[in-house]
From TrEMBL:
This is DUF1572 domain-containing protein. It holds the Pfam family DUF1572.
Amino acid sequence: MTVAQMYLNAVQKRFRSVKELGDKTLDQLEEAQLHWTYNEDSNSIAVIVKHVSGNMISRWTDFLTTDGEKVTRNRDGEFTDSLQTKEDVMTVWEEGWQVFFDALQGLTDTDLQGFVTIRGEQHSVIDAIERQMSHYSQHVGQIVYIAKQLKGSKWQTLSIPKGQSQAFTESMVKKHRQ
């Protein structure tokens, strides 16, 4: 396996992990919670989902051949809370990730040596991938944080529960020794 293939496998795995955190978070929320904002300057989870999806569709449609900031994108419109139902939110969430994963899975070793343009600025393909890793992780983190605050004691943890780190580590070490 080449270093490029190892890299592509690693980033696909990491991005799937980021999406899974978002999936598990969104699953825990009621429709009204998706639209809650701390204040008028804050974004709701529905707005964050709409923005992330809009970014994915713009950046990853014709990723290698067109500017990642498509003329058809209405970035400012992504920050209006226009998704009405939880089903709408989930549909937009899945659409963005589908476009993204289709493009990412289609990349080859040779593609990783190339360059793409985002807002007229040239980036290596690897830099463009890493840029999106940071961006999507940041926004999924926001979604998780908001949801955790909204759910309070009803929040179902997405990682190792408090007080169980040592037991978890021991079970992982044991598992990997076998």
